[in-house]
Design brief:
about 300 residues, about 40% helix, alpha/beta, eight-stranded mixed β-sheet, 8 strands, binds zinc ion
């Protein structure tokens, strides 16, 4: 086991263990997950509808439901199963478009124990499922868009690390991992300490939509404590960043919270700015999701695919 894998493993175990212990003492909140059949009966379900299919369910069920949704919609996808001493699960891979360059967009389908896992990260799964329908209807001719639905992100990016180990990454020009994409009005690209083709492409795409740097979109450097699946790709030398929506009026509080490792580590105990007030808690329910925030991410990704 490489040292880096060991670090991810230990961190993941700590984070999940902490959530399990704290959430066991918190009052569970009732969530009414939508049956898959209800959503399949809709011709064009919303992102919130899609998120509600996964909300409040255990990880095995979440994983199975993503595959059942894709199959029922007639989507051709690859299932990549992994099984290591760290854990097991299934990643799903779908590719749309043509050409030599690949843009990988990731949403993990698992959640921490005791949290309904709506904003972290069923909302991101829903965003990518909607994006898939749009992109498949008009595939890009110069770019392959690869959607990756990973398992076990909460276990130190285990699914993404398994994917990176098993996959030829030649041609992958950029990777974005969607995390906490359902609350707020500003976009944040993070773990972006230096300019890359992807940070430039992202800036071009969102500025074309009217976003302004440091006002309505932010590019921030390497974040301590928090992380996401893109880090498995960054370790392989590929431009790879996280994408999150934040409330603009919390930007300063978020900066203080995220860049102070001690605040982040003891995040369960300190006042947490939105969207971290519900993160990894029983309050991460779909009724906290803001459709406008979800639409922002969808539109930004559409623009990125058009211009990258
Ligand atoms: Zn997450």
């Amino acid at each position: 086991m490489r040292l880096r894998d060991a670090g991810c493993f230990i961190r993941g175990r700590l984070s999940v263990g902490l959530a399990r212990a704290l959430n066991a003492r918190r009052r569970p909140e009732r969530v009414a997950a939508l049956p898959l059949e209800t959503v399949l009966a809709l011709r064009d379900p919303s992102v919130v509808d899609l998120a509600r299919v996964l909300e409040g369910r255990g990880n095995a069920e979440r994983e199975a439901l993503v595959a059942r949704y894709l199959s029922a919609r007639g989507v051709v996808f690859e299932t990549q199963r992994f099984n290591t001493f760290e854990g097991s699960g299934a990643n799903y891979v779908i590719e749309v478009g043509a050409g030599d360059r690949v843009l990988v967009l990731i949403a993990h389908h698992d959640a921490v124990p005791g949290s309904p896992g709506a904003n972290d990260n069923a909302a991101a799964v829903g965003i990518l499922l909607k994006l898939l329908a749009r992109t498949a209807a008009a595939p890009p001719r110069d770019l392959r868009v690869r959607l990756l639905f990973t398992a076990a992100e909460e276990l130190g990016y285990l699914g993404a690390r398994a994917y990176v180990r098993a996959t030829e990454l030649r041609g992958v020009a950029g990777v974005l991992s969607l995390e906490l994409c359902g609350i707020g009005d500003s976009l944040a690209l993070w773990d972006a300490p230096a300019e890359t083709d992807l940070t430039r492409g992202f800036a071009r795409a969102v500025e074309g939509l009217g976003y302004r740097r440091d006002e309505t979109y932010h590019t921030v450097g390497r974040i301590p404590v928090f992380g996401s699946d893109h880090r498995a790709f960054a370790d392989a030398g590929i431009p790879a960043h996280g994408l999150t929506v934040i409330p603009g009026d919390e930007a300063e509080g978020l900066r203080r919270f995220i860049f102070n490792p001690w605040r982040s580590v003891f995040r369960q105990l300190v006042h947490r700015p939105r969207p971290f007030d519900t993160y990894h808690t029983p309050r991460d329910r779909s009724d906290t999701l803001e459709p406008a925030a979800l639409d922002r991410v969808g539109a930004a990704l559409d623009a990125l695919i058009r211009t990258f």
